[in-house]
Structure formats: structure tokens, C-alpha cells
Amino acid sequence: INLKVECDVRGADVFVVQPTCPNVHEHLFELLSFADCLRRASAKRAAR
Asked: What is the mean pLDDT of residues 8-35?
């Protein structure tokens, strides 16, 4: 998985909407990976 935050989220509250329909493990992994990506991009808070 290659994740990239293309806008500045530094200090921003970010909301992530991710489906958890069939293939739940893959979607959950993507969600957690993206939340980590946002944290590394200095988002103030990432709500899931």
C-alpha cells in the first residue's frame, strides 16, 4: 500500500471515512495505515 497525503493537514482535525465491508482485514489495515500517515503528517487529530 502506497499512501500519500496530498494536502497540508498540519494542525488540522481530519475525519476519515473508510468502508469495512467484506475483506474487512484489508480495509481495516488501510484505515490504520492511513491514520498513521496522517499522524506523521502532523494532523492535530484523526477521527475514524
From this structure: 89
Asked if the model's pLDDT at residue 18 lies above 90, the reply is no
Burial state string for 7-39 with b = 16 or more CB within 10 A and e = fewer than 16: eebeeeebeeeeeeeeeeeeeeebbeebbebbe
- Domain residues for the domain of 23 are 13-47
The domain total for the chain is 1
Q: C-alpha cell of 24?
A: 474487512
Give domain status of residue 2, yes or no.
Answer: no
* CA 24/CA 8 separation, integer angstroms: 29
Query: What pTM does this model have?
Result: 0.76
Asked whether residue 7 is assigned to any structural domain, the reply reads no
> In this structure, is residue 43 part of a structural domain?
yes
